[in-house]
Design brief:
11 helices; globular; 288 residues; mainly alpha
């Protein structure tokens, strides 16, 4: 008699995959929601933020770091250039990171878990520093002599007055997560791929660095601190260990005889330390 029952195993795979995907989405979205909410806790510390800005500016001059104005002057050579920089700052940060995580989740699951943990560590440390050290960006610091390129040329993601901005904390300049996430994106893609061109991903954090400084949204030290925190996270989170085949490398040599099924009928089994037996024809020929 034919059974009309359907095995449950094949359906369990897709259901489990959907549950994992939903769990990851909730985890990532929830984490960044907590981060965004936490940043807003320091928006009313205006005096402290400007005192820290003056100290940061003086520290950069003491360290003889190049002035942020040198990068901004390069951007101001043309309206199209500075507008492109503003658009890059406003529109690339979150989408690029999201696409990066999605690609890793689909193509490199082990690298995805590693990257998610590193980014969580970096972002959590950044939130703690934002709360402990509110910092006004150089575009708001009179001593810097820089202009707010986003307000003048557009597009902008901030209100002109920080006190009126209820959706973003303009005093969370240090560290720069724009740079920290961009650097992790590049390092993650270098680690997860094998193309000889993969080191070109480093152009993304380099371009991001020039944009955040040239638009006067961050100091050089904001990027330095982000790189230090990322380095600490990379040291604390174990690197992925995976034997998954890399599609970029191409197919490797095929496997040998399946150990579970044993050798093919009539196939000799080599024994370590003993010479391989000759075939019957070879033995007969030798006897002649």
């Amino acid at each position: 008699m034919t059974s009309h029952t359907t095995p449950a195993e094949p359906a369990a795979g897709p259901r489990a995959a959907r549950r994992r995907l939903i769990r990851e989405l909730l985890l990532v979205v929830g984490f960044f929601a907590v981060y965004k909410a936490g940043r807003l806790l320091s928006t009313d510390r205006t005096d402290e933020a400007f005192r820290n800005a003056a100290r940061t500016w003086d520290a950069e001059r003491f360290l003889h770091l190049p002035g942020e104005g040198a990068v901004q002057r390069l951007l101001l050579h043309g309206d199209a250039l500075v507008t492109t920089a503003n658009t890059y700052y406003a529109g690339v940060h979150f989408p690029a990171t999201a696409l990066f995580l999605i690609w890793l989740y689909v193509r490199r699951p082990a690298h995805y878990l590693w990257t998610r943990r590193v980014l969580a560590g970096l972002t959590g440390a950044a939130l703690a520093l934002h709360l402990a050290f509110p910092l006004a960006p150089p575009r708001l610091l009179d001593a810097a002599g820089l202009i707010d390129t986003a307000q003048v040329y557009g597009p902008t993601v901030y209100k002109a007055a920080p006190a009126e901005d209820t959706l973003a904390n303009q005093f969370a300049a240090m560290p720069s997560l724009h740079f920290g996430w961009a650097l992790m994106l590049a390092l993650g893609m270098i680690a997860a791929t094998s193309s000889r061109w993969r080191f070109l991903w480093l152009l993304h954090p380099l371009l991001t660095l020039l944009v955040i400084v040239g638009t006067a949204n961050h100091y050089w030290l904001d990027a330095v601190v982000a790189a230090v925190l990322l380095g600490a996270a990379l040291l604390l989170v174990p690197k992925p260990r995976t034997s998954d085949p890399d599609p970029d490398r191409g197919a490797g040599p095929g496997p040998g005889p399946d150990a579970r099924t044993g050798p093919e009928p009539g196939q000799d089994i080599p024994v370590r330390g003993l010479p391989r037996p000759r075939s019957a024809d070879a033995a007969v020929g030798a006897g002649r």
